[in-house]
Amino acid sequence: REGSPRDRARVLGALGNMALSQSDGDEAERLFKESGALFRAVGDVQGSARMQSNLAVALVARDRYAEAESLLMECVEVARSLGVDHFLAVNLGNLAIAIYEQGDLDRGAPFFEESLALARSVGDGVLSSQALSFKGQAALRHGDLESTEASYREILAIAGELKDPVTAMLGLDRFAEVFPDRATMRDIAAGR
């Protein structure tokens, strides 16, 4: 029995995510495009935008930052028009990454800031930590060690609140990379 076009679009999107996680960018791109077309055909604006966002992430993974930026700008507009704050936060963060990877830290910074504010407002600690990680990297590139340290310490605080070892490792890794002589890992984990 064949499912509805919307069901098929969902399956294709899931397969695209699987392909992306297995570093098969060509297949992920194909699947996200096909899924997005099906969502558009049934009038599902948010589903189509989700697939476009996923496609942009696949393009970033393949160093196609300008293409990703264009797609993500559209996703941000859709998210704003639908009033879906979490989706908006994700796309603003991804947009900032695409811009950041093109070497334009100053143009990407406001998107990181808005993404972080929205992630905090919807209570998504993992998304907040990701935004803080990139905010810290941008500060580091500008030579602002104080802001870099503050961002990485905030990741550690969020990880402690979430009791999330993956987020904790992100914070510890970033901190130790930048401040290897500053403290031991135990000190960092204890917030000293």
Describe the protein.
The protein contains ten helices and no strands. Helix content is 82%, strand content 0%. The chain has helices at 5-21, 25-41, 45-61, 65-82, 85-101, 105-121, 125-141, 145-162, 165-178, 185-189. Helix 5 runs parallel beside helix 7 (125-141), helix 6 runs antiparallel to helix 7 and helix 7 runs antiparallel to helix 8. It is mainly alpha-helical.
What would you call the structural class? mainly alpha
Give the SSE string: HHHHHHHHHH
The tally of helices reads: 10
User: What does the largest sheet look like?
Assistant: none
How helical, in percent, are the residues?
over 70%
Beta-strand share of residues: under 5%
Shape: elongated
Distance between the termini: 60 Å
Per DSSP E runs of 2 or more residues, the count of β-strands stands at 0
Cα gyration radius (Å): 18 Å
Mean pLDDT: 87
User: What are the low-pLDDT stretches, counting only 5+ consecutive residues below 50?
Assistant: none
Oligomer: single chain
At a glance:
With 192 residues, the protein is an all-alpha fold. It contains ten helices and no strands.
